[in-house]
Amino acid sequence: MKILGIWDGHDAGAALIKGDKILFAINEERLTRRKLEIAFPVRSIRACLNQTGTACDEIAEIAVSTSDVAKTLSRVIPSLKEEYYQIRRRKKGPERSSVIKKKMKYRLTEYPPSSLTRWVSRRNLRSRLRSLGFESFRLHLTDHHLSHAVPAAVCSGFEKGLVITLDGLGDGLSGSVSRYEKGRLERISGISARHSLGIFFEHVTNLMNMRELEDEGKVMALANYAYPVDDAQNPMMDLIRVKGLSMRCRHGSLGMYEALKKILWHFPSEQFAHMAQRTLERRILELAKNAMNATGMNHLSLAGGIFSNVKVNRLLRMLPDLRQCHVFPHMGDGGLALGAALVVNHQLNLVRQVPLTDLCLGPRYRDEEIKDVLKTSGLSFRKSREMVKETAEIIARGGIVFWFQGRMELGPRALGARSILARPDSLAIKDALNLRLKKRVWYQPFCPAMREADAAEILADYDGPLNRFMTMAYMVREDKRDCVRGVINVDGSCRPQIVGDENPIYRDLLEEIRRLTGHGILLNTSLNLHGEPVVCSPQDAVKTMLDTGNEYMAIGNFLVENRK
Ligand SMILES: [Fe+2]
To answer: What is the overall mean pLDDT for the chain?
Structure first.
């Protein structure tokens, strides 16, 4: 039985699963080419069907996450979310009515679902799905935090453990704590939307003139440059407290915003970022410790947008009583389509484990399709019989290579399917990448990819198992920092992709790089231009190559050169 999962909010998308297999999953932004797309994911749904050869009438179960008041309203009046999208992404300036709208948004989003919102959401979704050709299906509305928690649990590989979800909010909650045992997920705490760590960090991001729900990683990166502030002197600690398995905010959403604004008035921005990061770390560690003490469980699985914070995840991983920590790799709302499908699969089919060894779950393009695109591109290209060897040689001598191989990755990280690859030990290459392509802020580092066999030699706190999906920070050994100077933070940490056998051509490339340079490490960053979604199709890749003037691309079996 195939189940289609849909998410029609921030970073919309669709996923198709069958039994314990994820057949296909994609986010709408990759197809509309609009970052963190919010529109109903028509193209993703069609891609799920077309790429798996599935007809609409083969889908008997469709799962859609979230039916709270704000989500339902945005289904009925899509222009509401479009306007928020334009303002949030700084495409449109605030207007006179913006303050009132902001107040309404924060007030409305806190309301949980009701029988009325479920009825309206169902009606709206049914009509949309019928217009796409679905006739006979059961529609399941899945709870927001359950749609974060179930994938965290079933993809963790743990027989039993704790599952913590934390985000801005959804369906009246900003977090949850659950036990997962013998295939049953039991929620033991729900954290109210009013007391949201995610909204706290969202406000911090916004106040620093960054885009909330998008630039939180920049806040985390900037925090590294602050003089440490003692926790006792950190005024943010007082704004949010942990009580048992719950959170307590001193103010409501808007009161919190005003309180943070006052704090920012007194501190430089890097100090502000540092205090926010410390508050986040302290409170999440307290919550996790309380949950471990209350349940006696020592395996932890995490999901929700907050767990894109790799420094928090590192601290959790290092808790002395914890045996293992897993972060669901598409932890934010972009993972809710897959999450909703897995919830229904768990409830109807009792599927308790879904192995997640590979995230390359998107479209694949045949060599003939790629060749047709290259022929009309004006770029010089040829078939390479030794793609790995030739690419490694270009990189070893300082070239930057667009790497387009196999099915596209799901989620926020490039994992060696749609990546830009370069040497990790050169500050000049890092600067060239920034100037020409990525336009990252100066304090945001690139990331390394390394072979599993080399990880312990490079990372001081590498404890296995594989961290395939770049969900954790690690510290680089002192004597190895020169080899990775283009991909580490100022504090010596990095966010590595540790590559096993799941992607053989990428693993072989790392091996070849090791043979040529002495270290099996690459700088790996997503194949996209600044502000654009990651490349999906050969057309997107060629366009990016032409727009940037980058010299080399290894796409399928073709080596492309941009001689202009
Ligand atoms: Fe969420």
So the answer is: 95
Report how far residue 22's alpha carbon sits from residue 355's, in angstroms, rounded to the nearest whole number: 9
Contact between 363 and 26 under an 8 Å Cβ cutoff? The reply is yes
Question: For position 213, which CATH number holds?
Answer: 3.30.420.40
**Distance, CA 317 to ligand 1 centroid (Å)?**
22
What are the tokens at 65? 């996450």
Residue 425 CB coordination number (10 Å): 20
Residues 219 and 140 in one domain: no
- What stretch of H or E contains 126? helix 115-131
Phi, psi of 343 (to 5 degrees): -60, -50
Q: What is the 3-state secondary structure (H, E, C) of 249-264?
A: ECCCHHHHHHHHHHHH
Question: Looking at the structure, do residues 458 and 513 belong to the same domain, yes or no?
Answer: yes
How many Å lie between the centroid of ligand 1 and the Cα of residue 306? Answer: 9
Number of structural domains (the chain) is 3
Task: Please check whether residues 135 and 163 belong to one and the same domain.
Answer: no
Q: How far is the CA of 169 from the centre of ligand 1 (A)?
A: 6
Same structural domain, 123 and 180: no
At 18 the three-state DSSP class reads strand
CA of 496 to the centre of ligand 1 (A): 25
Q: Is the pTM of this model over 0.85?
A: yes
Q: What SS3 class is residue 462?
A: coil
Q: Report residue 305's pLDDT band, with 50, 70 and 90 as the boundaries.
A: very high
In this structure, which residues have their CB less than 5 angstroms from ion ligand 1?
Answer: 167, 170, 333
Question: Based on the domain organization, do 190 and 73 belong to the same domain?
Answer: no
Q: Which residue has the tokens 């995230």?
A: 359
Same domain, 87 and 204: no
Domain boundary among 86, 114, 146: 146
- Residue 233 burial (CB count, 10 A): 9
The domain in which residue 383 lies consists of: 367-561
Determine the Cα–Cα distance for residues 468 and 452; give it in Å rounded to an integer: 9
Interval 341-374: pLDDT, tens: 999 999 999 999 999 989 999 999 999 999 999 9
213 Cα to the center of ligand 1, angstroms: 10
In tens, the pLDDT along 469-493 reads 999 999 999 999 999 999 999 999 9
Please check whether residues 304 and 322 belong to one and the same domain.
yes
CA–centroid distance, residue 66 to ligand 1 (Å): 9
167 Cα to the center of ligand 1, angstroms: 5
Find the CATH number of the domain harbouring 120. Answer: 3.30.420
The two three-digit tokens of residue 448, written as one number: 């390394």
Compute, in angstroms, the gap from residue 521 CA to the centroid of ligand 1.
Answer: 33
Nearest C-alpha neighbor of 548 from the set 365, 401, 404: 401
Q: Give the burial class of 127: count Cβ atoms within 10 A of its Cβ; 0-12 exposed, 13-18 middle, 19 or more buried.
A: exposed
Cα gap 503→357, rounded to integer Å: 10
| Domain closes at, from 112, 127, 146 | 146
> Looking at the structure, do residues 199 and 94 belong to the same domain, yes or no?
no
Distances (CA, A) of 171 to 121, 141, 191, 539: 13, 11, 11, 39
